[in-house]
Write a structure and sequence with these properties.
Radius of gyration: 18 Å
CATH superfamily: Metal-dependent hydrolases
CATH class: Alpha Beta
Structural class: alpha/beta
Order of helices and strands: EHHEHEHEHEHEHEHEHH
Shape: globular
Strand order of the largest sheet: 1-2-3-4-5-6-7-8
Number of strands: 8
Distance between the termini: 16 Å
Strand content: 5-15%
CATH architecture: Alpha-Beta Barrel
Number of domains: 1
Largest sheet: 8 strands, parallel
C-alpha cells in the first residue's frame, strides 16, 4: 500500500541550532533520548521507509531555534530542492509573540508550508490543569495569534495531552474556519483503565467538532518496544471515535525510533487495520493526509 507519512522530522545538528538536541536535556516522554542527538536527513529517512511505497511526507517543525522560526523554512526549502523530501511542511510559529503576524504572513506566502505548530502550555497531569493559564489555548494573547491562521491559509497542528482537549474543542468551535490536526493520538501515555477512560472521554469531546482530524502516531510506551499488543486498542478506539475519514497514520520519525523501527510501527498499523475495507485503509494511510495537507500530484517524493 502506498503511504503518506503525515508526521516526521529531519535535522542537521552540525548546521543548525535545535535547543532540545544541542543543550541540556529536557524532560522527554520516552525518557532517555540521547540516541536522537545525531543528524537525521532524507537519506536516513529513505533507508527507514524503504520497505514501503512512499507517496509523500509531511515535515513537522523540530523545535528549531525559537528566535528564528523562518530559518527552518529556508533550510527545509534547500533540503526539499536537493532531495525531493519533504512534500510539504508544518512550520514553527509562536502565536503569543509580537512577531506572530509577520511570521504567519511569511509562512502563508511559502508554497510548501501548509500549517503551523505551536505547542500550547500544558499541565503535567489532569489534576494540575489550570484553565486559561498563560500560553494555553484559552490565553487571549495566544488566541490573537491563532485568529490569524485562517486568513493566511494555514492549518494548526496541535500537540497537547488529552486533558487539554476540552480547551481544544472550545478553540475549534471559536475558529471554525481553521482545521486542527491533533498530533500523536492525544498522547495516551497512561495505559491504566482510568487513564484510558479519561483519554477516550476527552477524544470523543474533541472529535465532536467537525473541523478536526487526528494523526495516529507517537503511541510508544516508555520502556517497551513498540508492539501491536500494546497499541491495538488505542489505534482501534481512535478510529472508532474519529472515523476513517479523519484519521492519518504517521511515523513520528526519528523520534519514535526510540521505541521501534519504521517497519515495526507501520507494519503494526497495517496489521491492526487488516479488517478494515481497502477503501478505508487507503484513506487512513494515504488519501486523508493528501487532502488535509493539500498535496498535489506534482509534490516531490
Amino acid at each position: 500500500m502506498k503511504i503518506i507519512d503525515a508526521h516526521h522530522h529531519f535535522w542537521d545538528l552540525d548546521a543548525n541550532y535545535l535547543p532540545w538536541l544541542k543543550d541540556k536535556p529536557v524532560k522527554f516522554r520516552y525518557g532517555d533520548y540521547q540516541a536522537l542527538k545525531r543528524n537525521y536527513l532524507p537519506k536516513d529517512y529513505r533507508a527507514d521507509v524503504a520497505p514501503f511505497e512512499l507517496g509523500g511526507s509531511v515535515f513537522i517543525e523540530t523545535e528549531w531555534d525559537p528566535m528564528d522560526p523562518l530559518g527552518e523554512v529556508a533550510w527545509v526549502a534547500g533540503v526539499r530542492a536537493a532531495s525531493g523530501l519533504p512534500s510539504v511542511m508544518v512550520a514553527q510559529a509562536w502565536l503569543d509573540r509580537e512577531d506572530a503576524e509577520e511570521v504567519l504572513a511569511a509562512h502563508g506566502a511559502t508554497d510548501f508550508v501548509r500549517g503551523i505548530r505551536h505547542k500550547p502550555a500544558a499541565a503535567p497531569s489532569p489534576d494540575k490543569f489550570d484553565p486559561g493559564a498563560p500560553g494555553s489555548m484559552a490565553d487571549p494573547a495566544w488566541r490573537r495569534g491563532y485568529a490569524m491562521l485562517a486568513s493566511n491559509g494555514l492549518t494548526f497542528d496541535l500537540q497537547t495531552p488529552w486533558w487539554h482537549l476540552v480547551e481544544a474543542r472550545d478553540l475549534a468551535e471559536a475558529f471554525p474556519d481553521t482545521r486542527i490536526h491533533l498530533n500523536h493520538t492525544g498522547l495516551p501515555a497512561d495505559r491504566s483503565p482510568e487513564g484510558l477512560a479519561g483519554w477516550r472521554k476527552a477524544m470523543k469531546l474533541f472529535a465532536a467538532a467537525p473541523n478536526v482530524a487526528v494523526k495516529i502516531s507517537g503511541i510508544g510506551v516508555p520502556g517497551h518496544r513498540w508492539s501491536v499488543e500494546d497499541n491495538r486498542a488505542v489505534v482501534l478506539d481512535t478510529i472508532d471515535i474519529f472515523g476513517p475519514d479523519r484519521c492519518m497514520f504517521a511515523s513520528n520519525f526519528p523520534v519514535d525510533s526510540l521505541v521501534g523501527s519504521f517497519q515495526t510501527i507501520f507494519s503494526g498499523f497495517l496489521e491492526i487495520t487488516s479488517e478494515f475495507s481497502e477503501a478505508d485503509r487507503r484513506k487512513m494511510f494515504h488519501d486523508n493526509a493528501a487532502n488535509y495537507y493539500r498535496m498535489t500530484a506534482d509534490e516531490p517524493v
